[in-house]
């Protein structure tokens, strides 16, 4: 097992009706920015729950944080927080609102041009505005991690940043919010969480036994509940297990002491930046092709995954690994994921050139757990995805 430090200060408040605890979690004299997205919280009652729980607080609202949150949008909130001297931020939404709030939190007191946080990937160690979240969409794990992904409109870049100072102070995770989600978003959430586990698991055999078993447990649970929660999101048993799987998939736990990959995400972010394909849907396109291209170095773990998660009984490693990829593709299809970039855009011809050039400019020439995902391999993966 590799050495590790596990630091996660998020107070995760999980379950029905937990939003009513907000006033215990935010200081009574705080001047709060309440940040949200395109307005779903007005339709499903979450806005009313939050404002009821925060009666008497000094609240300024900031709406309009879009899916794949834009730097240009969140900078408007940064100005408001500075001008009004607000000292707490509450994110009410999915991964996009939470990520947007992480950026606002880091940018308000940032010494320099906040765009550098993204373009120079500055690690945020302190001097942030404290924030909490009310999660409305299980998917990203952003409610319990210190990462964020922001898109810069002017350069069409989707970039991540993070650091120990951008963990939420608390996150309220009430699974009843799942009931109002469109099917597409539930499907996205299942596949995003599934791929988060795979990025931290599907590498090579190692001796971190517990991490593997936890990862496999999350994958099996997502496989078990995924199709049903997409059909009946109001079922509390399904919704609560879905929500907890998503948090556990990317709260840092299964990543400790193990090699990780993340190349599927890096390539996927470019597809969103280019074509605005939903985050999870980019992963469903790329992941199987990445496993195919990296077959030789991933096949042993693929076979383990096939055997333990999909109950494949084949004893030949190559055959079991291939079957495991096909099982994954079938599951993605069951979850409504298209397989190809061409199913989203007719104008995909230069995608591989564009992504390879970008990665080379950024110096990303050796991705993956073994550093063997070279620009040539990225090209092959993307071209296979057309
Ligand atoms: O904006 P509103 O009106 O709220 O509508 C949202 C949005 O249109 C809607 N929605 C959210 N909760 C709802 C709801 N509709 C009805 N009922 C509810 N309860 O869903 C739509 C999508 O929301 P969004 O927040 O964009 O989705 P998601 O949570 O999947 O977040 C995606 C973003 O997170 C990033 C992605 O790259 C993408 O930008 N990620 C963040 C990560 C992190 N911070 O750790 C890791 C991930 O890998 C990912 O990269
Ligand atoms: Zn993701």
Automatic annotation (TrEMBL):
CDD domains: BDH. Pfam families: ADH_Fe_C (PF25137), Fe-ADH (PF00465). Residues 9-175 form the Alcohol dehydrogenase iron-type/glycerol dehydrogenase GldA domain. The keyword Oxidoreductase applies. Residues 189-356 form the Fe-containing alcohol dehydrogenase-like C-terminal domain. Gene3D superfamilies: 3.40.50.1970, Dehydroquinate synthase-like - alpha domain. Keywords: Oxidoreductase. PROSITE patterns: ADH_IRON_2 (PS00060). The keyword Oxidoreductase applies. It comes from the Bacteria. Its EC number is 1.1.1.1. GO terms for molecular function: alcohol dehydrogenase (NAD+) activity. Signal peptide: none annotated. PANTHER family: ALCOHOL DEHYDROGENASE YQHD. This is Iron-containing alcohol dehydrogenase. It comes from Flavobacterium arundinis.
